[in-house]
Design brief:
CATH topology of the largest domain: MetI-like fold
Strand order of the largest sheet: 2-3-9-6-7
Radius of gyration: 36 Å
Number of domains: 2
Distance between the termini: 46 Å
Order of helices and strands: HHHHHHEEEEEEEEEHHHHHH
Structural class: alpha+beta
Strand content: 5-15%
Number of strands: 9
Length: 441
């Protein structure tokens, strides 16, 4: 068709999908506005703000970026971020791979995967509160120390009398963390070794009412007990009373010239008997009777706080890795695995030489995704680490928050934000490139 002037009308330009470009632009406009307002503008503002001082009026140049490598707090955060990036994605991916492979052939594999994946439904805030309790120092509250102390006490005996000490009428005196009689003992002459300081509910379960030891010819006998009766003016010091309990299991040694010539343990009623070799020796209650009970590890202390928090992160994200790897495992050609078994490969060789290489693209995607995630970790560190060790558990995202709000240094906080963005971009680029490569195959 020609116009009145005779010139041919130019065809209206359309997009590849056949839609007019103007209409396509109108549909994209709301998304572009949101993208610019929520992503582009904050990034641009952070970049600009990172070059200004605390007030925002004076140009600081690269001083804020120089602080990234001179400030002690930021340097600690950088070191911890390296630890996070190296260990958290690696361990979570490895566990996800193990769970996915081992549960593939069992009937209850689906139920197991559901249980492992369930922590993903919990927010970082809730997970932080849970693990703050798990890592509590008190074994009666913290699950981690309850298990650790239980295992330790299985192989190492703990003391039942950590607070015990001699009373007013006791023949014992302090020596090398324990107590020893001030005078030597004689066979046939019962010895009283009264102590105080142990709460009744802390005495061994097998403790019975203390009784005075009987004299035995040629042997040294005696009693060690809790020389305390509740009630003012009740009881006799230096002698067992009806309501007083013996120190069941207390170790007693006979020492002569610095050498132990005999030893025994007190019975449930506190009585003990030593052979004739103890005649003329001094009796000693060694320090092992009075050592403080093992209280577990200080999980949230300066040395263990970062590994402890990484453990809570792995608890949450191992399920995510397992689900993605299991999906990749489901699409793997089974004939390759069977061919390897027919050729004589055992299960370990099949796993190492066939399964893992075929899953390499999936493993890379999972590991890179977790790397991006751990670079931004904030919630777990902020909640789990107590104030006394938060500096030791510091990461870049937490330091950004502290600089921006607690220390009122928005310029340094913006520099940290830009630095985090620069760290994430190469990892994201690698992930996108790998995904595109997989699409082309």
């Amino acid at each position: 068709m020609k116009s009145a002037t005779g010139a041919a009308e130019a065809p209206r330009r359309r997009s590849v999908t056949g839609t007019r470009r103007t209409v396509a632009a109108l549909f994209l406009l709301p998304a572009l506005v949101l993208l610019g307002a929520l992503v582009v503008y904050p990034i641009g503002y952070s970049v600009v703000r990172s070059f200004y001082d605390q007030s925002g009026d004076g140009f600081a140049g690269v001083d804020n970026y120089r602080a990234l490598f001179t400030d002690d707090g930021i340097r600690t955060a950088l070191k911890n971020n390296v630890i996070w990036v190296v260990f958290a994605p690696t361990v979570a991916t490895a566990l996800g791979l193990i769970f996915a492979v081992l549960t593939e052939r069992v009937r209850w594999g689906t139920a197991f995967k559901l249980v492992v994946f369930m922590p993903m439904a919990i927010s970082m805030l809730a997970a932080g509160i849970i693990f703050r309790l798990v890592y509590d120092q008190d074994p009666d509250k913290g699950v981690a120390n309850a298990v650790w102390v239980g295992v330790h006490d299985t192989f190492a005996e703990s003391s039942a009398f950590p607070k015990a000490h001699p009373g007013r009428k006791s023949p014992l005196v302090a020596e090398d963390g324990g107590f020893v009689t001030s005078a030597t003992v004689r066979a046939g002459d019962p010895v009283a070794l009264p102590l105080v300081g142990v709460a009744p509910d802390q005495l061994p379960d097998g403790a019975r009412k203390a009784v005075a030891a009987r004299a035995e010819p040629g042997k040294v006998t005696g009693t060690t007990w809790q020389d305390f009766t509740r009630g003012k003016g009740v009881g006799t010091l230096g002698a067992p009373d009806p309501d007083e309990l013996g120190y069941a299991g207390m170790r007693i040694e006979a020492v002569e010239d610095g050498k132990v010539v005999a030893s025994t343990r007190a019975a449930a009623d506190g009585t003990f008997t030593l052979p004739a070799s103890a005649d003329g020796a001094r009796l000693r209650l060694p320090a092992s009777n009075f050592t403080e009970p093992y209280n577990g590890l200080d999980w949230l202390g300066p040395s263990l706080v970062t590994p402890a928090i990484i453990g809570s992160y792995i608890w949450m994200w191992a399920g995510f890795a397992m689900v993605l790897i299991a999906a990749g495992l489901a699409g793997m050609p089974r004939e390759l695995l069977e061919a390897a078994r027919v050729d004589g490969a055992n299960e370990w060789q099949v796993f190492r030489r066939v399964t893992v290489p075929l899953l390499a693209p999936v493993l890379a995607v999972v590991a890179v995704t977790l790397m991006i995630n751990v670079l931004k970790v904030f919630d777990l560190v902020f909640i789990i680490a107590p104030g006394s060790s938060q500096d030791d558990a510091n990461v870049l995202a937490l330091e950004l928050y502290r600089k921006g709000f607690a220390e009122d240094q928005p310029g340094v906080a913006s520099a940290i934000a830009v630095f985090l963005l620069l760290l994430v971009i190469p990892v994201m680029w690698f992930n996108v490139r790998r995904l595109r490569r997989e699409v082309r195959r």
